[in-house]
Amino acid sequence: MTKCYDLHCHSTASDGLLTPSELVYRAAQQQVDVLALTDHDTVSGLQEAYSAAQAHNIELVPGIECSALWARRTVHVLGLNIDPANSALQQAQEQLQQLREERAERIARRLAKVGLQDALAGARAHAGEGAIARPHFAAHMVEAGFVKSTAQAFKRYLGNGKIGDVANAWPSLTESVATILNAGGIPVLAHPDKYNLTRTKLRALVSDFVAAGGRGLEVVNGYQDNAVTQRLVALCTEYQLLGSSGSDFHVPSQPWQELGRQSLLPTEVQPVWDVF
Ligand code: AMP
Ligand code: MN
Ligand code: MN
Ligand code: MN
Hints:
- The protein is of the alpha/beta class.
- The protein contains nine helices and seven strands.
- The chain has helices spanning about 20-30, 45-55, 85-115, 120-125, 135-145, 150-160, 175-180, 200-210, 225-240; strands at about 5, 35, 60-70, 75-80, 185-190, 215-220, 240-245.
- The model has no long low-confidence stretch (mean pLDDT about 95).
- About 40% of the residues lie in helices and about 15% in strands.
- The structure holds adenosine monophosphate (AMP) and manganese (II) ion (MN) (3 copies).
- One manganese (II) ion binds near residues 8, 10, 65 and 248.
């Protein structure tokens, strides 16, 4: 039997709805064999996830999803099989959390201008102990009756180019890849199709990623079109990159991002788990 791999998901340590234990339990129910917890800019959920994984006979891969800047855009780099105790990684994580806090204050000030008061406190309440992220603002906006849904919150206020989409000084792509390599991890460019880049720009991104020491592309991210998968397979072949596959699970109510339900990694690419 081939194993079921899911190498991208989120818990309450960032913008996921389930605690690390609940997440691992759900992964077990979904017949996932190997799970990477990849919270945004933090490894704080990993310890709890480890214990739960032992109890449920799941192989846990320690991971992170790092926010990074490339050509003034935000891109995400997965760090798979990192050492969470690595001191440079710990430092980077603290810096990233600080940047998230500062950005959250700016987002709240912007939202106040369009009539939403106390957004910072509201978003914090949803973030709890976790890394504060835009979905926490969206949750607050829904709760306050300011928008009808998370989707509407992003479409009108938080998404690309909207008032709550404030620029942030994330570490560069090169720095982020270096941090992951330094922590013994494998840098994988997350959801390359989600950056709305032209083919030429995407190739420039992949080329810079490889030059920085990047090792893989996330060929499958949640539910996605087969044509997209094929394009990413071709990029893997061209740049001799490993392929990864993950659901990008955040909440239980989204079947297109269910744990372990993403399609199989095409056999033409070498799976990233070969080098764990
Ligand atoms: P942040 O890391 O704070 O910039 O927030 C980015 C997160 O917001 C992503 O990881 C997704 O979980 C979520 N997100 C981004 N775009 C959308 C969207 N259009 N609808 C719903 N959630 C989104
Ligand atoms: Mn997210
Ligand atoms: Mn992402
Ligand atoms: Mn993600």
